Amino acid sequence: MAVFFRELETLVADGFIVKSSRIEPSINAMNARGGRLISILRALPEADYATLKANNPWIVAPLPGVMGWNGPVPAGKTQVIYLPESLEREPAADVRLTIAHEIAHCLLGHTRLPADDPANETAAWHKAIDLGFGTVEAVSAFRKKHGV
């Protein structure tokens, strides 16, 4: 059973979850990505949540069927965390690990290219494990399964 440190209303007030959107995680269109994202954001320790909030990422999780999108990046957003629609077809544990890993990149300040720097990838996996969103064995199996 996960320990939650904050309510859904806080995630909305902090801009991580919106009330309605075709491309951002929203209350009106909950899916596997949105549910796992909310669970992770609610369970982040306060210091890590404060870092994420300060880093102000734009979390993009398009609804199924959205084939493309064009528009402005919201004011003040510093980086993008992209959660593709294809995650909807993955096992829940893989969705959780993927989201935790991407949030870990943001927490660790990984905003520079190359995006697939091996040291940054390893650090993000370790951070996801340290936060309690996976185990060494689960991450190893995930990386082998997905070739990452």
The major beta sheet can be summarized as: 2 strands, parallel
Task: Please report the total strand number as a whole number.
Answer: 2
Helix content: 40-55%
Mean pLDDT level: 88
* Residue windows where pLDDT falls under 50 for at least 5 positions: none
Cα gyration radius (Å):
15 Å
Strand order of the largest sheet: 1-2
The total tally of domains equals 1
Q: Give, in order, the helices and strands.
A: HHHEEHHH
State the distance separating the first and last CA atoms.
29 Å
Please work out how many helical segments DSSP would assign: 6
Tell me the β content.
Answer: under 5%
Inertia-based shape: globular
State the secondary-structure class: mainly alpha
Describe the structure.
The protein has 148 residues and is mainly α. It has one domain. Helices cover 46% and strands 4% of the residues. The chain contains six helices and two strands, in the order H-H-H-E-E-H-H-H. The protein has a two-stranded parallel ribbon with strand order 1-2. Helix 2 packs across helix 4 (92-107) and helix 4 (92-107) packs across helix 5. The longest helix has 16 residues, at 92-107. It is globular.
Summarize the structure.
The chain is mainly alpha-helical and 148 residues long. The protein is built from 6 helices and 2 strands.
Q: What distinguishing features does this structure have?
A:
148 residues; mainly alpha; two-stranded parallel ribbon; 2 strands; 46% helix; 4% strand
Layout of secondary structure:
Layout: H1 8-13, H2 32-43, H3 46-55, E1 58-60, E2 80-82, H4 92-107, H5 118-130, H6 136-146
Parallel strand pairs: 1-2
Helix pairs in contact: 2-4, 4-5
